[in-house]
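step=encode ok
step=design start
structure_in=
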């Protein structure tokens, strides 16, 4: 695997709404370096990318869209990214994948664990059930690990590695992730090209897929220097630390949250894979996430609620960004 890694300087007016982008696909690195020479030092920001970047009309369109019509929800995505991206990127880095692939999650779901598409894709990585189960995610009536950010991210890294082995292009990895590898395979065979932009020009891809890669590139550019694109005074989330506890069947998250004195939503967000907000009574045990430092209180609650059941005491996790 070969990743393009470089540092560049980017300027807000490089992609101003009034700019007319080149009709040809050009090297973004070259474009940024050219703009850098004409820009005041105060307007520059150092960026590092580990995916190849292209700047063309499609990328320019989505940058402009996120600055205008989509600014409210893109602002929300940027704010959420400070909480979620470090953990996602850590998983990608651990298996040698480009960390900028994490921006796929921003486009797929806006970091929503409970996101669901019209095609029944679920979770931050938007897995459909067959693909999820192929990569060992459990999907059932009470437990849906597609909503578990860590488990789904691990599954996504395995899926992405398989896609890269077949297609050998990060743009085609993203395209196949969006439209399905079988459909992309057919179009590559039909048009005899593995160039994403050429396939787009041929109209060989669904509109959603033709937009998907430019959206990722636009999101990468803005997210790495948000102030330069007009996104200022963003809320910065601190990493949320948590502990693990093994709880018996019959546990209601709402009851535990009330005992801990935290909001019910916050505990459900920590355990988004529990679809119904509880562990069914017929399940012997299940590991849940609880706020860091609450081990004693959780143990007290479990002992009081389930005196006849055995359960392991809470396990302390390493400091982590919570991504549920």
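sequence_out=
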């Amino acid at each position: 695997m070969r990743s393009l890694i470089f540092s560049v300087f980017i300027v807000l007016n490089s992609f101003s709404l009034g700019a007319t982008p080149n009709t040809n696909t050009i090297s973004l690195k070259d474009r940024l370096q050219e703009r850098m020479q004409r820009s005041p030092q105060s307007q520059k920001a150092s960026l590092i990318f580990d995916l190849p970047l292209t700047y063309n009309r499609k990328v320019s369109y989505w940058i402009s869209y996120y600055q205008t019509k989509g600014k409210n929800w893109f602002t929300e995505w940027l704010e959420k990214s400070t909480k979620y991206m470090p953990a996602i990127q850590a998983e990608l880095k651990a298996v040698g994948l480009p960390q900028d692939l994490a921006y796929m999650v921003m486009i797929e779901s806006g970091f929503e664990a409970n996101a669901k598409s019209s095609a029944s894709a679920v979770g931050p990585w938007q897995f459909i059930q067959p693909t999820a189960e192929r990569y060992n995610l459990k999907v059932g009536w009470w437990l849906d690990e597609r909503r578990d950010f860590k488990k789904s991210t691990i599954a996504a890294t395995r899926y992405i590695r398989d896609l890269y082995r077949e297609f050998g292009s990060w743009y085609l990895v993203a395209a196949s992730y969006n439209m399905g590898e079988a459909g992309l395979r057919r179009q590559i065979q039909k048009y005899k090209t593995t160039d994403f932009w050429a396939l787009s020009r041929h109209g060989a891809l669904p509109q959603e897929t033709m937009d998907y890669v430019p959206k990722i590139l636009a999101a990468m550019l803005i997210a790495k220097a948000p102030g330069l694109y007009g996104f200022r005074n963003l809320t910065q989330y601190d990493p949320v630390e948590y502990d693990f506890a093994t709880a018996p069947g019959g546990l209601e998250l709402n009851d535990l949250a009330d005992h801990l004195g935290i909001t019910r939503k916050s505990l459900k967000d920590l355990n988004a894979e529990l679809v119904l907000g509880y562990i069914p009574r017929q399940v012997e045990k299940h590991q849940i996430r609880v706020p860091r430092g609450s081990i004693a209180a959780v143990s007290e609650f479990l002992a009081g609620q389930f005196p006849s059941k055995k359960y392991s005491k809470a396990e302390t996790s390493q400091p982590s960004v919570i991504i549920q």
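step=design ok
step=annotate ok -> The chain is about 45% helix and 10% strand.
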